[in-house]
Specification:
The complex is a heterodimer of chains A (99) and B (669).
Chain A (H helix, E strand, L loop, with lengths): L3 H20 L3 H26 L3 H29 L15
Helix pairs in contact in A: 1-2, 2-3
Chain B lengths: L2 H22 L7 H26 L7 E11 L2 E9 L1 H24 L6 H20 L3 H19 L6 H32 L4 H11 L5 H17 L8 H4 L5 H10 L4 H8 L1 H4 L3 H22 L5 H22 L2 H28 L17 H14 L6 H16 L4 H26 L5 H7 L35 H16 L11 H6 L15 H28 L3 H8 L1 H8 L4 H48 L6 H24 L1
The chains are: A mainly alpha (99), B mainly alpha (669).
């Protein structure tokens, strides 16, 4: 089975994710786009796993999902907290870490 | 038991005593600290006697025994063990140290009994004896240096014993600093020895030295001179002597113990111990002998004019140590060590008697204020006179035999060594004179008011004040205060002084030329390979020397009698006629000023320059420069930290793309 199309799809989703992270200002959308990138990676892993007949890739994808879930928990928690404190949800304005 | 086992016991008792008194002083009732301290030293003396008897059972050539407790350090060819060397020289020194110290402890039990620092005093005193014994018994140079430094510390602690007395603390610091100069010399000598001979073990050094070095090889001479620096600092030889007179700020028993009987003899011991090195480095030995001669003459002249009773005795100590250093340097080992022993007896006795007189004078030490104590203090006067007789080498007393043996050897050695004999006899005349300057002025002449009151049975009390500055003494931390102790009223003092008086009178008879030869025989085991040891003057020559010594001694005493008893105004007249000479001697040959000008002031000047110029411009410049550089660098880096999340993400993406492209190109080729 040819995995080219899977990889093309994966690359497309990843590109969408990157573009989202770079262009959008809302933290919520950036978080969504990060998920897209992670899952694009997952797709590539699964494709290779099937293609090479090696199950380790699938296990890897599962672990990435767990990590992604953790990351979302933290990220959403931060966003909710910022919202509650009436902090503008705009990453260009959240730059108090400027050196 | 083995002799070495006794050697360890000799060390163990004083250390145990010091620790016990030092830690348990709150629990010890009354005066028990003093008795514990005295008992510790007495036991140590008994152990020394044990070692002595064991050693005497062995054949002469087997009388050098070593014993090691454990490896202290072992690396790179260096093997340092906690080891002791028990040989005739070490045992002899231990006998002198523990024997004299026992009686000084006994004396102190009474003399310091109203002092607030009583337990502290005995803890220090035991520690001092321990250090001295460690120095003497050490089997390698490292342990010897440890003992050497301990002695320096103990003397600091005891000189500064009355620590609220500014002059005492300053004297303590002075002694410590000058002793450290000597320590540096000794350590450098040890380094040279290790580099050249590859060992620090004493016996190995003595075995290797004659094979490795040729006569007067420059390295050997350097080692000899560096050892001499150590010996001179510890034994108060010119020009490192200025601490000894100042050390009289401590309590009188301390002066007796440290600055007369034991500590100052460490340098003599060192030179005698390292005789295999000095017999190769003959130049260094000659320098040492010249130092000894210079010291004995300089100190004797100063002792003619000083008015502080204890300082006169201190200068006489310097002078007598000069004889010993001269003796062991020219090869008269047994004579020098014999004088060390007799001197320990009569000098400790003189200090004890002086302590009793000072107590009767309510802590005043100026001999111009003293006089006529013969009826008020009969016992003290008698012992003081015995001490003076022995110091003046009066025929038949101990000092007579020992001093003249050194001078007879100098004469016998020939060459330019007759200079030492002549110088020694000149010194002997001065010694006899200043000895009876003390004796006649304190004991005879018109009784002073203090003596008269004491004749009525009333001991004079006065508010104690520092004779040097006129400050009132702080009795809270342990100054005798209004209570003094004179030998007539305290039996431990009387016992100690009686024993030492017997020693001062009769100790000389152990070695009378042609009759007895005890010390020379006994020490033979330690000087087996010496070229000079058996090369002793004939009995006739020695008796000739003794006759000359007797005449000189009697002449000196007679002169003192004329000057101080028959025509009491003579000295004042002399002072008026030769004011420059008198000032010169009274200022102690300007040694303090010389050291001040040559070392202290340049060092201070350098310090000031370092503070004002070097610190301000160089050190500050470096520091400020470093700060500015760091600040500039971080300003450049800060620009990158914009705080824009998306720009960070972009950088990341660009970076990963770059990495990917790199791997594609690298993998493709």
């Amino acid at each position: 089975m040819d995995i080219t199309w899977y990889l093309v799809l994966s690359a497309l989703i990843f590109a969408v994710g990157v573009a989202g992270v770079l262009l959008r200002r809302s933290p919520l959308v950036i978080l969504l786009c990060l998920e897209l990138m992670l899952n694009a990676g997952n797709l590539a892993l699964l494709a290779f796993s099937r293609s090479l007949g090696n199950e380790e890739g699938q296990v890897f994808a599962l672990i990435v999902m767990v990590v992604a879930a953790c990351e979302v928990v933290v990220g959403l928690g931060l966003i909710v907290a910022a919202y509650r404190r009436r902090i503008p949800l705009n990453v260009d304005e959240l730059r108090s870490l400027r050196g | 038991m083995e002799p070495t086992t006794y050697g360890w016991l000799v060390l163990a008792f004083p250390l145990a005593g010091s620790v016990l008194i030092g830690l348990g002083y709150r629990l010890l009732p009354g005066r028990s600290a003093g008795w514990i301290g005295t008992a510790a030293i007495a036991l140590s003396f008994a152990a020394t006697m044990g070692a002595l008897t064991q050693l005497l059972d062995l054949p002469t050539e087997e009388r050098q025994l070593t014993s090691s407790l454990y490896d202290y350090a072992s690396a790179g060819g260096l093997d340092i063990q906690l080891s002791i060397l028990v040989d005739p020289l070490a045992v002899y020194m231990c006998l002198v140290v523990t024997g004299i110290s026992t009686f000084i402890h006994l004396y102190s039990v009474s003399y310091l009994s109203s002092d607030r620092g009583y337990a502290r005093f005995f803890s220090y005193l035991n520690f001092f004896v321990f250090s001295m014994l460690l120095l003497v018994l050490a089997g390698n140079l490292i342990l010897l240096i440890v003992g050497w430094a301990f002695v320096g510390f103990a003397s600091y602690a005891l000189i500064s014993f009355w620590y609220r007395r500014t002059t005492a603390t300053e004297a303590g610091m002075k002694a410590f600093v000058i002793n450290v100069v000597g320590d540096v010399g000794l350590v450098l000598a040890a380094l040279f020895i290790f580099r050249e001979l590859g060992t620090l073990d004493l016996l190995a050094i003595f075995e290797a030295a004659p094979e490795e070095f040729s006569t007067n090889e420059s390295v050997a001479v350097a080692i000899g001179l560096l050892l001499l620096v150590g010996a001179a600092a510890k034994s108060a030889q010119v020009p490192l002597h200025t601490w000894l007179p100042d050390a009289m700020e401590g309590p009188t028993p301390v002066s007796a113990l440290i600055h007369a009987a034991t500590m100052v003899t460490a340098g003599v011991y060192l030179i005698a111990r390292f005789h295999p090195v000095y017999e190769i480095a003959l130049t260094a030995a000659d320098v040492a002998a010249i130092v000894g001669l210079a010291t004995l003459l300089i100190a004797a002249t100063i002792a003619l004019v000083v008015t502080d009773l204890k300082r006169i005795i201190a200068y006489s100590t310097m002078s007598q140590i000069g004889y010993m250093v001269m003796g062991v340097s020219i090869g008269a080992y047994s004579a020098g060590l014999f004088h060390l022993m007799t001197h320990a007896f009569f000098k400790a006795l003189l200090f004890m008697a002086a302590g009793s007189v000072i107590a009767a004078m309510a802590n005043r030490q100026n001999i111009d204020l003293m006089g006529g104590f013969r009826r008020a203090l009969p016992f003290t006067s008698a012992t003081l006179l015995i001490g003076c007789l022995a110091l003046a080498a009066f025929p038949g007393t101990s000092g007579f035999f020992s001093k003249d043996e050194i001078l007879a050897f100098a004469e016998h050695r020939g060459g330019f060594y007759w200079v030492f004999a002549i110088g020694g006899y000149v010194g002997a005349l001065l010694t006899a004179f200043y000895a009876f300057r003390i004796g006649f002025r304190v004991v005879f002449r018109e009784p002073v008011p203090e003596a008269r009151e004491l004749e009525q049975g009333h001991l004079v009390h006065a508010e104690p004040e520092n004779p040097a500055t006129g400050e009132k003494e702080d009795t809270d931390v342990g100054f005798p205060g209004p209570e003094h102790h004179i030998a007539e009223r305290a039996w431990p003092m009387r016992i100690a002084m009686s024993v030492l008086a017997v020693g001062a009178l009769f100790a000389g008879f152990v070695q009378v030329p042609g009759v007895t030869d005890t010390i020379h025989e006994f020490l033979h085991g330690s000087f087996e390979h010496s070229g000079f040891y058996e090369d002793i003057p004939s009995d006739a020559a020695e008796w000739r020397g003794l006759a000359v010594g007797a005449v000189i001694s009697l002449a000196g005493i007679l002169l003192a009698a004329i000057v101080y008893l028959r025509r009491p105004g003579t000295t004042a007249g002399l002072v008026e006629r030769f004011p420059a000479l008198h000032t010169f001697l009274e200022r102690k040959w300007y040694f303090d000023e010389l050291i001040d000008a040559v070392i202290v002031r340049p060092a201070l000047g350098f310090g000031r320059w370092a503070d004002r110029t070097f610190e301000r411009y160089v050190v500050q410049g470096l520091v400020l420069g470093a700060i500015e550089t760091a600040r500039g660098a971080n300003a450049a880096v800060r620009v990158a930290q914009s705080g824009y999340l998306r720009s960070y993400a972009l950088l990341l993406v660009v970076g990963f793309c770059g990495l990917g492209v790199y791997f594609l190109i690298a993998g493709g080729s």
